[in-house]
Amino acid sequence: MSIDDWFLDSTERDNPFTRLDHRHGGRAHTSGNSGKVHVHGAEYFARLRELIEQQQAGDLMMFTDWRGDPDERVGEDSLTIVELIAAAARRGVIVKALFWRSHLDTIHYSEAENRSLADTVREAGGEVLLDQRVLPLGSHHQKFVVLRHPDRPHLDAAFAGGIDMCHTRRDDARHHGDPQTVSMGEVWGKTPAWHDMMLEVRGPAVGDIEATFRERWDDPTPLTLDIFSRAGAVLHRDDGHGDPMPPQTPDPEPTGDLHVQVLRTFPPRQPRYPFAPSGERSIARAYSKAVPRAESLVYVEDQYVWSPLVASCYARALREHPGLHLVIVLSTYTTADTTIANASAMSARNAALDLLHEAGGDRVHVFGIENHENVPVYVHSKVCVVDDVWMTVGSDNMNLRSWTYDSELTCAVIDGVGDGRAPRSLREDGEEAGALPRAVRLQLAREHLDRPDGEDEDLVDPEAMVRAFEESAARLDAWHEGGRRGPRPAGRLRRYVRQQIPRKQQALGRVVYKLANDPDARPRTLRGTDRF
After folding, report:
1. CA 251 to chain centre
2. The domain 280-517 belongs to what CATH superfamily?
3. pLDDT tens digits along 141-193
4. What is the pTM of this model?
5. Residue 516 DSSP symbol
6. Distance from C-alpha of 93 to C-alpha of 100, rounded to nearest angstrom
7. Above 70 in pLDDT, residue 227?
8. Pick from 26, 184, 444, 526: CA 20 to 30 A from residue 232's CA?
């Protein structure tokens, strides 16, 4: 196996100003890591609570978030996320956090919630910066946590993925939803079901994720340049800059066989990021390098699937490899499920799917999911598995905003330990399927098919898994179309049916899409192309 065939090298990252590619002698990834994927917020919050409660005075907690609701419970008892973090700060844990300042709540964002969580953590002795160093209508969308223990480095860990510390996220495999909800469209029900995941890593990659936090923390640029936000910051006595952090300790010792590459998006902006003065699009570049290598199966879970320009790397793989299947599990409806939201988002999705179907025909398989009460599940996970070799878990979605405009963080993973089951390789070059990427794909497949742990031997083969998905979705679709008579068939998969947008709405939708939903921050010479 040649890792360099899959991962970016430091030149391909195209950002010589980041610390990441100077930390390991010019190598743009780490080896010797271990990891586990936590599917669903309930499992993730329980694990996060377990590790934070182990932290002692002098340990270090760093985290970033897009939205934080201070009263979000982390378990079945009454403990909230802000109580968990504040308790750590009071017992002497050094707590540093970067929250997106957020747009006004009047346009359905999270200004008040983020500020409330920040204020409570500050009162307990932690330090939280409300960070608006983004492009207009942009956001800090990164979601990661780093836990360091100078005197007990064997406990060091980091999490990265799609789960925010907020309402609706604490769902589980049953998908009955989080009792603490946010406002969504009626189609999602009173307690929207939410499918999501985070990657827990241990080993040297923890240091790379921490380095990303420190780059943002050490940025001397004012946290906001907007006059109204600056006035609000003064009124609320927000911290204007971060206090110096203790020096970064050496990376944790190797713990396993995972190779991990930390990928980011930072847009070019003024004032410039010192660590990315021309921006960084390593997430986009990583997909553009790895996905076209796919030969048998690409498995994707994504919230949006919007842009044909982003979908182009998948289309290229489908055209060049006639045996390749692409499986996409996505959110069937938009979050708000309004006329404007559908006109902008669904037109862009239809264009992306048109490109994929033109390239792959019936080898492209697109599904939504629902729970056993027949309510659609909102898919917020961001995962891609290529030939059971290269896998990503992160905060980025399949759109231009994630690949060029917002800040994002994603981990690409290759497992040095093979899965061992037949087929041992899904590739002509014989490269063996990795234990973790295959395990993640099969875990997600079992959930969507309503199968217990271990009942997946027939799903290891890509074509067999595709048949199982198609047949399960067909049975459930037929049950719905037949008036839901008799027992509900096993499974949660529904074949995705596109929303057709009336022509009169498409023009307005295109404007909203380009300006607000999915802006492109690439240099003008690259816009309109599939190069990143």
Report:
1. 24
2. Endonuclease Chain A (3.30.870.10)
3. 999 999 999 999 999 999 999 999 999 999 999 999 999 999 999 999 999 99
4. 0.96
5. I
6. 22
7. no
8. 184
